[in-house]
């Protein structure tokens, strides 16, 4: 059976990363899944005005342990462009993927649950650290839906409803990396879940584009011990007082 774009699949990919796109194309074609490529934002090409329009360095100093790198800013903007597309085109539900992962054969099976997933803000499709769930909900014979106290810190692949896209766009400016903002989901009244077994795995043969563009580092180091502790306490409090969503 061929999977069509009644449930859009978006691949975020830098124009210069043609090898990554070729790899994703091959995987999706082998699974008979249509997709749309979204040109990613390359942070190093952004002007200061473009950065200041979307990123708040003031709020970053208040609520995160370090300033965002240009790669992290570009990555966040790329995901926001997909969310905006969903809102502008009234897309009820979509699958959003970065270009550096491996799709398992089970990835194809998630589309049979599209009507169910439309009712959940955001569902993570990958977790390279295997965070333990708070609660579980069986989904047919193939998967279980889970929630978290400790949300996985990756934006490799996820499903997103229209309601979820609107909530993520509620921030006028962002100040944390996109995957970390998803961990602070309750600030946006956003619910975040996971789907196990995860249908996406880490491609260990590929280095993150953010790492490549940052000269070998994913993000900037903490600017001070106090700032780092302040952030860690805030994150601890958030995890202690909230679960990621109600099943």
Topology of this protein?
Elements: E1 9-13, H1 18-30, E2 36-39, H2 48-54, H3 57-63, H4 70-88, E3 93-98, E4 101-103, H5 114-117, E5 122-124, E6 136-139, E7 143-146, E8 157-161, H6 162-168, H7 178-183, E9 192-196, E10 200-202, H8 209-213, H9 225-241
Parallel strand pairs: 1-2, 1-3, 5-9
Antiparallel strand pairs: 3-8, 4-10, 5-8, 6-7, 7-9
Helix pairs in contact: 4-6
Question: What does this molecule look like?
Answer:
With 247 residues, this protein is of the alpha/beta class. It has a single domain, classed as Alpha-Beta Complex (Spore Coat Polysaccharide Biosynthesis Protein SpsA, Chain A). Helix content is 34%, strand content 17%. It contains nine helices and ten strands. It has helices spanning 18-30, 48-54, 57-63, 70-88, 114-117, 162-168, 178-183, 209-213, 225-241; strands spanning 9-13, 36-39, 93-98, 101-103, 122-124, 136-139, 143-146, 157-161, 192-196, 200-202. The strands form two sheets. Strands 2-1-3-8-5-9-7-6 form an eight-stranded mixed β-sheet, with helices on both faces. A hairpin with a 3-residue loop joins strand 6 and strand 7. The longest helix is centred in the N-terminal third of the chain and has 19 residues, at 70-88. The chain is globular. It starts with 8 loop residues before the first strand and ends in a 6-residue tail after the last helix. The relative contact order is 0.19.
